Amino acid sequence: MNKGLLFALVATILAPNSALADENDICDTKLYKQMVGSIKQGVKRPNFRPSKALSKLMSEDEMLCPLQIERDFNGDNQNDWVGVIEQNGEISLSAYMSVKNGYQLIKIKQYPRVPNNLYFDTSSEKTLRNRAGFVAFLPNVKFAAVENIIDGNSIAYAWSGSTMQKLIDFKIVKKKKVRLD
To answer: Over the stretch 2-54, which tens digit does the pLDDT of each residue have?
Structure first.
């Protein structure tokens, strides 16, 4: 990525007079727009200002939308959306899951305020087993949503048949390079 473009991206993210979260169309995927349009209780993306550590990670990894991910989390071959939303003044981790006749919004957990030190990614059962130890998904479920807290634990959420449930809480231990002289 061009360094000038990367600098402009980081400057935009850190700018004190940044645009409102709903004006950030980079993260407005088709599924996100569908969710906002179909939910009657005023769902929106909360205003978000990342911590310094998260800003650095976002810059290094070219991460544009740390508070949301899309993947097939329930094994029906349709993408689902997991992310942080604001609804009726509450901030929550929620999932917009495909069901038989459309999609359903599922609240996973509530936050006291907009989190500024975490990001989401996905893990397959095999990858999660290697990172965290023993885990088991339901049949046909191939991915879990993982909430990664900067300098903290990671929490994997997996489809239980009716909701996204906390599967495992784990800490990724970075291997230190050993110098042999």
So the answer is: 555 444 444 444 444 343 444 557 888 898 988 888 887 788 889 989 999 99
SS3 content of the chain, % helix, strand, coil (to 5): 25, 35, 45
Q: Is 105 helix (H, G, I), strand (E, B) or coil?
A: strand
102 by DSSP, 3-state: which?
A: strand
* 83 and 68 Cβ atoms separated by less than 8 Å: yes
Residue 166, beta-bridge partner list: 157
Q: CA dist 78 to 31, 34, 145, 171, Å?
A: 11, 14, 15, 30
Token pair of 150 as six digits: 């900067």
User: Among candidates 148, 168, 150, which has minimal Cα distance to 158?
Assistant: 168
d(CA 134, CA 128): 8
Judge whether 65 and 27 are in contact, CB under 8 Å: yes
Q: Which of 87, 84, 102, 81 is nearest to 30 (CA)?
A: 81
* Nearest alpha-carbon partner for 67 in 156, 148, 129, 7: 148
Q: CA 97, CA 165: separation in Å to the nearest integer?
A: 13
Instruction: Report the mean per-residue pLDDT for the chain.
Output: 83
* Phi-psi map region of 107: left, alpha, beta (phi>0 left; psi -120 to 50 alpha): beta
